[in-house]
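Practice problem 4.
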């Protein structure tokens, strides 16, 4: 009987870990795509850098920087489009509450493990609020991208492949 209970516990724990990883990857994918939608001259960091949040330990502090840089990138892009709304912080408040709560609860849980479940619920809820805010800004940017007012590609990415010509089968010999 004890072995069955242990097996159920391991299965439940494994399910929670897989669910958590899927949520985190989808969250970071949204951040990545949002940064990719912003014009390169308004980005504070390359889109692929959001995946550094997966680094254990250091990822929390990287997430704090990512929240700040993403909100300022969004602000810069919307100001360039002349679509900036006064009082809009572009997810900065919810993002800093989310990352700050990760740090605070990470320290507090060492002393009061009974707070683990409420802390997880709070952190998950605040991250979802931040996620929704960023998704709304991304949707606004995609409307501008569809009309051609912004282009998420850098000049180097636009120039790539301009000098590539059609090849014939006889061109495959080594030079």
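Answer key:
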């Amino acid at each position: 009987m004890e072995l069955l209970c242990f097996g159920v516990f391991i299965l439940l724990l494994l399910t929670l870990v897989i669910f958590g990883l899927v949520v985190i990857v989808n969250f970071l994918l949204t951040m990545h795509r949002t940064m990719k939608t912003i014009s390169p001259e308004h980005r504070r960091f390359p889109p692929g850098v959001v995946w550094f949040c997966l680094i254990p330990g250091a990822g929390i502090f990287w997430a704090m920087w990512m929240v700040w840089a993403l909100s300022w990138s969004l602000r810069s892009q919307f100001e360039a489009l002349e679509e900036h709304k006064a009082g809009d912080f572009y997810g900065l408040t919810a993002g800093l509450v989310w990352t700050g709560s990760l740090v605070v609860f990470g320290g507090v849980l060492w002393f009061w493990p009974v707070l683990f479940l409420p802390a997880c619920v709070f952190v998950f809820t605040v991250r979802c609020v931040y996620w929704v805010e960023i998704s709304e800004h991304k949707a606004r940017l995609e409307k501008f991208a569809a009309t051609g007012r912004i282009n998420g590609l850098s000049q180097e990415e636009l120039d790539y492949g301009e000098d590539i010509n059609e090849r014939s089968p006889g061109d495959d010999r080594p030079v």
